[in-house]
Amino acid sequence: MATIVNMPRLSDTMEEGVVAKWLKSVGDKIEEGDILAEIETDKATMEFESFHEGILLYIGVQDGESSPVDVLLAIIGEEGEDISAHINGAAKATEEEIIETVIETPTSTADEKSDGVSIPEGVQVITMPRLSDTMTDGTVATWLKNVGDTVEEGDILAEIETDKATMEFECFYEGTILYIGVQEGETAPVDSLLTIIGPTGTDISAIVANGGVATVAADAPDTEEKETKIAEKTVEAASTATVNTTNGRIFASPLAKKIAADKGYQLSDIKGSGENGRIIKKDVENHTPAAKTVEIVKIETAAPAITYIASGEEKSEEVKNSQMRKAIAKSLGNSKFTAPDFNLNIEVDMDNAMASRKTINAIPDTKVSFNDMVVKACAMALQKHPQVNTSWTNENTIYHSHIHVGVAVAVDEGLVVPVVKHTNQLSLTQIGASVRDLAGKARHKKIAIAEMQGSTFTVSNLGMFGIENFTSIINQPNSAILSVGAIVEKPVVKNGQIVVGNTMKLTLTCDHRTVDGAVGAQFLQTLKTFIENPITMLA
């Protein structure tokens, strides 16, 4: 099914973009993460990344041409797909938008009055930026500047939390912070009033009362155009940012604050080792809370029994949900309540796998885990059972010719699923290296969005925590997810004799809209064969 790609809004002030250079041509195969084009805004020339897979079927804006935001830029779909309706529909929509703009856009001549609030000279209204393609609102994790502070270009104003990461928001103006519209810990939609910067003493009450919506003063000369410098130039810096210490506030990095909150620590009890006494990640992790004294009250009664009642403080604390936790809740909630799922269980003999792994890891500079074996076996089993390597839509079942296995990884803030692309084409050692690299990036918040998208199947392993058997929620749009338990040593029957063996339980959760019970069972039987006979995965 064709995917429409529109001219993106690469900054909050961008109204149109110029395609500086196409890096792909019509007919080229596109993968998630590929750079489609370089797009020039009024601020910079930026790379535009694809979040879809397929064939580039149409280019709507040629090299050097400009186009308004949200107008058809390209179409990605299946080879030979009829896209004429999309092209004609986009052309008609664009024409209507132009007519509407001509009719509704007010002029800025001195003879006409503006209905909006005029912006005083030198004042800049800054709105909540869109820091990711899926971001609809943001949470201010920390303000690094206060009302009344003088700021310069390049200063970091705040740390803003999205569903992807906590990111620094940089200032592109000089002046004084006159107003802060979103306080620490508060969440606001994209484009809502975040802060106002301008000359000290400027009256901005009308702008604030109007929610930050303002227009240029009516008597401003037509020849003068204000150049805004707000841009979404942000970098992840959760582990290095500092907190303003005025008004008795505590120096602490955002990551340290989150870890402390998760562990129930008070920042005031932790000694910081960073610059100016700032509390950083290792300070929280190395902190040992002081033992709390619990008063024991002895109550004597006429009976010989003695009852002890512990008296202590009852305390509960509300911790605001992070954007990542909200995203996880939304995604898994949608999956659980929309997909009619069912579970299939199987137990696998791991004796041969354990022996093979020991032999492989004896080779210098080689390291393979049992999870790597499972991921490889899943990729090979998906080749034999393509019905499991599918996605459901209301109109079609999408059969994926590629096999991208997602591997669930626990991080401090929740759960992410890095994706090993074209898993079936990789060796065991290559899979192991890829999984370790992606998991490391995820835990250190260095993983790219493209590295967490595009999975066609998912593996979730809790065996390292001693969990023998569990079920997972399907990672949509996948049709199935495999839950991997711990390897357990126990009595088993082999050749009619009871002997000590090693087994592992697997649970396959399937979307019944695409995978029937018999198909899921056959997939598990094939998977079992590969895992119990690792030599078949080395061919």
Structural write-up:
This protein is α+β, with helices and mostly antiparallel strands and 539 residues long. It has 3 domains: 3-104, OB fold (Dihydrolipoamide Acetyltransferase, E2P) (Beta Barrel), CATH 2.40.50; 117-215, OB fold (Dihydrolipoamide Acetyltransferase, E2P) (Beta Barrel); 323-537, Chloramphenicol Acetyltransferase (2-Layer Sandwich). The chain is 21% helix and 28% strand. The protein has 9 helices and 30 strands. The chain has helices spanning 84-104, 205-209, 254-263, 281-285, 323-338, 351-361, 370-384, 428-443, 517-532; strands at 3-6, 16-22, 29-30, 35-40, 45-49, 54-59, 66-68, 72-77, 117-118, 124-127, 137-143, 150-151, 156-161, 166-170, 175-180, 187-189, 193-198, 214-215, 295-299, 307-311, 341-349, 390-392, 397-399, 405-407, 409-411, 414-416, 419-420, 457-461, 480-494, 497-511. The protein has a 6-stranded mixed sheet. Strands 1-8-6-3 form a 4-stranded antiparallel sheet, covered by helices on one side. Helix 7 (370-384) crosses helix 8 (428-443) and helix 7 (370-384) packs across helix 9 (517-532). The chain starts with a strand and ends in a 7-residue tail after the last helix. The model is unreliable at 95-114 and 216-247 (pLDDT under 50).
